[in-house]
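Cross-posting from the modeling subforum.

Setting up a comparison between two proteins and wanted a second pair of eyes on the formatting. Protein 1 (sequence, then structure tokens):
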Amino acid sequence: MSTTITETRVCRLYGQGDLRLETDTVRAPGPGEVQVAVKAGGICGSDLHYFQDGGFGPIRVREPIILGHEAAGVVAMLGNGVTGLTVGQTVAINPSRPCGHCRFCREGHPNHCLEMRFFGSAMRMPHEQGAFRDHITVDAAQCVPLGADRSPAEGACAEPLAVCLHAANRAGDLEGKRVLVTGAGPIGALSTAVARHCGAAEIVVTDLQDHALSVARAMGATTTVNVAAEPERMEAYTADKGSFDVAFECSAAAPAIAQAIACVRPLGRIVQVGVSGNQPVPINALVGKEIEFVGTHRFHAEFAEAVDLIDRGAIDVRPIITHSIGLDELGTAFAIAGDRSQAVKVQLRFD
């Protein structure tokens, strides 16, 4: 038996540092749509950038925006014609809605869609509203079911895991490879888990925070290095033109990019996962070692793959969830999420 919901709390950002918990309306699902009672939503680095800085790079908050694109919940209502979903079922919500008809969609690269609509993004005008709210109406195709043994908190990790699965696809075969991961935030930790799942022989993870490195070890790192406390430990990996076959650069910090180039062997590959503004890059070393330096952007089919891996227990995402905080403590949640000394992934809890 479904219940009609007409009001919902929303997490709305008006500008830099101006985050408010407000009440809004939610529409009933139309044909092919479902209404989801959101139960967990992960605070992403982009959410933090919007809150702390009013945006990142050229993308700025120009009007009020509901944040959030990492979300999972329970199906509350079904629109006409929806099949394969039932009221009360736990689902992960795919925040990505490519148009399906632009040239990149037609070429099989919908993550580069020219008309992409992505939850909680200020790239478009008007902004695309996000999923940090008690109830949201979405296309049924955006809902990927989870088994009864998996929690919405785990399901909300499907989006960042999908990002890392796409990055791994950009890296190529990892079986038996030596892998470096620079930056042990949520994406670095999940990249570590993906590398382990793909059969990497060695996974070295670097960061500036011991707490984050402890989470990386729980996710499968064979070695962790605090490069602030023990930078000399990385010298061995630069010997003889470098040690690693593949690096996932997840920090977007200039020193980490330079270190990845120094530590990757000739003809190796660096996948740039972290995003920031302009950074200096040692081009001479990149060219001299014939390193492939490739980008990676979001995901497409990898979202369903991420949900499947979580559902089967092939990748355990729970170690990255360091905090679960009620929506009524919104300010506290964002403050903790911005403190890397104590937090990896902070999730909002929608009770």
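Protein 2 (same layout):
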Amino acid sequence: LHAVRYAALAAAGFALVLIGIRIMQSIGPALQHQGLFAWFIEQARVSLLWGVIAGAAVAALIHSSSAVIVIAMGFAASGVISPELGIAVTLGSNIGTCVTAWLASIGGTRAGVFVAWSHILLNVGGTVLFFPLIGLLHEVSTWMTADPSAQIARAQTLFNVASSLIALPFCYLPFSRKKNLQPRT
């Protein structure tokens, strides 16, 4: 009986996530006619840095980079923004999600603070590293799919895998050893 209940809850939760994604994707055309959104799109045509800033700000406010990525995918699918701008927003959302880790580390253990700052360094460093490569991320993702929203998802996956592989060797440096993370006495 408990197994059926938990399976039903999991199915319902998954269904609600899919409904939420559909709703977030549908707001793109409505926002297209708003003055602030039009201003943002105009600025982003000059520099994709505006996309990174917007992604970071929205993810920091709602504490969900995934939601920001889904919104960017919806905008790209409806033609409101270009896939390149969607990738810039996605990169920015990786920075914005660091706010949650930073807030969680306040007053935490030394190990918790270390993990939070590692998360911040990985996401900010990865974004700084990949910002000049947005065009390349887009090009590689177009080899995989022609769908603009899927291109953003593929670019996010490529970003995460590449950033993690670049950061992996740093996990074995002396400052990351467990003895340095012992609680202070």
